[in-house]
Amino acid sequence: MSVVCDDEVVKRWEREQASLRQRVVEEDTEAWQRCPRFSTLERVGGVDLSFIKGDEVNACAQLVVLSYPDLEVLYEDSQMVRLTAPYVAGFLAFRETPFLLEALRRLERDRPQLLPQVVLVDGNGLFHYREFGLACHLGVLSGIPCVGVAKNLLQVQGVTKSEEHQSQISALLLKGGDSFPLTATSGRVLGKALRSSDTSSKPVYVSVGHRISLDSAVRLTHSCCRYRVPEPIRQTRTFSALDPPLDCAVLLSFSHLCSCSPHCT
């Protein structure tokens, strides 16, 4: 739920977004990204914040690192956090990035050999009101290549849940790996709708976060999917391989009572 926020705070956030937006790199910068099968990629991260339904202050910040291409859990970090910034549509990153960035820095300090080479973010990147979503924010501040993978379509810059969009899903997403561009009214492609697996006809929405091209982001997301949601993000909810802190374990054990933060922004 969006809340009333001081106009000066919003203006400051807008200025900071605009400044950080200039640092986004929308191209492949790593050797593994240029390999047809990402043959030199070894570690893929996933991040997410989970909330108890009805509680917009207390959350569980989660980072997992999986091996690639086997997608086995190598590392997991979950911490209960208390959010201080309000949720304002289009400014989710100011609410969540500090805790996700802290998890990455904690890993880099304690077990640098497990630092992911790329991070899949449960949210959007360039597919955003001002082309600077959570995945861009985290990518620029961490310096790590990031990909935004959203489960719901953000209606932005002329892209809407229209009959045409639904028709594209039916006609163009026939099998896992199929995709089509999300084109703004300006003609700029901000991301792609991807059928991530043969068993799920509902797409995910992939966009560049930082230091990766859109084509590589889509290929990587598909290669990480056993089900609809890519494993690095799905595993932030699973906790099947490791023992998380008790408070986060309790939080997520009541998954039927939990709701995700508005990651479509």
Explain this structure.
Strands 1, 2, 3, 4, 5, 6, 7, 8 and 9 form a 9-stranded mixed β-sheet that branches. With 265 residues, this protein is an alpha+beta fold. Helix content is 28%, strand content 23%. The chain has helices at 7-21, 92-110, 134-142, 163-172, 214-223, 231-234, 246-253, and strands at 43-52, 58-67, 73-82, 118-121, 146-150, 179-183, 189-194, 204-210, 258-260. The chain is globular. Strand 6 and strand 7 form a beta hairpin. Helix 2 runs parallel beside helix 3 (134-142).
Task: List the defining traits of the structure above.
alpha+beta; archaeoglobus fulgidus dsm 4304 fold; 265 residues; disordered C terminus; globular; single chain
Task: Explain the layout of strands and helices.
Layout: H1 7-21, E1 43-52, E2 58-67, E3 73-82, H2 92-110, E4 118-121, H3 134-142, E5 146-150, H4 163-172, E6 179-183, E7 189-194, E8 204-210, H5 214-223, H6 231-234, H7 246-253, E9 258-260
Parallel strand pairs: 1-4, 4-5
Antiparallel strand pairs: 1-2, 1-9, 2-3, 5-8, 6-7, 7-8
Helix pairs in contact: 2-3
